[in-house]
Amino acid sequence: MREDILLDMLTAVLLFFLNPLFVGALLVAVLIGYFRVKRERRSFRVRLMPGVTELKRLLSESWLFALVLSILISGIGLLVDVGWLVLFCVASFIALISLYYKIASPIYFAAAAYATIYLMGSYAEGFTFMGWSPSEVDLFGDLAVTVAIIAGLLLIVEGLLIRRYAGKDASPYMKNTNRGLRAAVFKGKKLWLLPVVFLVPGDMITAFLPYWPQFTFSEQAFTFVPVPLVIGFSQVVRSTYAETLFPKIGRGVAYLGLAVLAIGVGAIWMPMLGVLALVIGVVGRVVLSVLVSLRDRNKGYVAAPRSLGVVIAGVLPDSPAERMGLISGECIRSVNGQKVKNEKELYDAIQINAAHCRLQVLGRDGEVRLTQQVIYRHDHHRLGILVVG
Predict the structure, then answer these.
(1) Most CB atoms within 10 A, among 91, 208, 224, 247?
(2) With bands split at pLDDT 50, 70 and 90, how would you rate the model's confidence at 358?
(3) Do 258 and 368 belong together in one domain?
(4) Could you tell me the pTM of the whole model?
(5) Which of 199, 161, 239 is nearest to 82 (CA)?
(6) Number of domains in the chain
(7) For residue 61, is it within any domain?
(8) Residue-wise pLDDT tens digits, 189-204
(9) Closest Cα partner for 69 from 7, 187, 166, 160?
């Protein structure tokens, strides 16, 4: 008996790690880092962060949110229809492999899975799979309530992740302006993996894994099922800085999630409100993305070449530039007392005193400040800055 239980537990763990979403997320995180490094090297001949950065942060930034989600879903007792959960994962996988992460918001996955069950119930009434049939799903009852509440929670988590992490990893690259100049734009592309435990009613899981833990509440059996969920984010910005704009986007998404959650809770008494919550969530998320893109396109480039000096597009981690407090968008006016107007003059001036670097910097706020740093032998020979131009 004990060996059978251990075998079922091992099988469950293997099924989780062999889940296409889990494996796909690992591979795609590597691809995101690879393409980012190629783009940065093409623009600056050096990469900003290692190519494995996205892979390292795939789970490290989101595991706590996944834990809180699992506790909330279990504590509230939200029973998830297994068919909806499978279709949710299918929609997530399609968005994952597309690499187009403007559509990788969980509200889209939740609504797509719900709409698919509705269409299957309308046009494929006789469809069954492993004992599940769309015609048996209470679309405008319990499912509408459950999906709306879970979608609201996932939107809140998405907003918090964007607000906290998206702006920190924005990658600069060069782009030609309408005036023929080379200006920097900033691209944030993030992928988060959340291992979330869902409550699935019935004995569908135990039919294949007899010793999988099963519980009974109010004469209804259910099981805990761990599922790897993905949340993606992608946004290019040129008229402001990523660390300024992306937290605002995150707050907007989180507030939208709160609205969806509130309406979803109201669906407990009027289930049709759950459908309204999904519609509001999808429309609101689309409108938010479109408005951000349109407003950005109608403005100029914030990191464009200037006659006053050399504009910084990015700063390498753990470099002399980072220790001097330099950030993207600032303009270096002089180095070691020498005025500089381009990249060549900048690095020629650095060689005047290779062991000590004194900079006059024009900040984003228009204020001029002086900063200096001792440069050691192991430090980056270019101070660790990516230059616009």
Answers:
(1) 91
(2) confident
(3) no
(4) 0.89
(5) 199
(6) 2
(7) yes
(8) 999 999 998 888 765 5
(9) 160
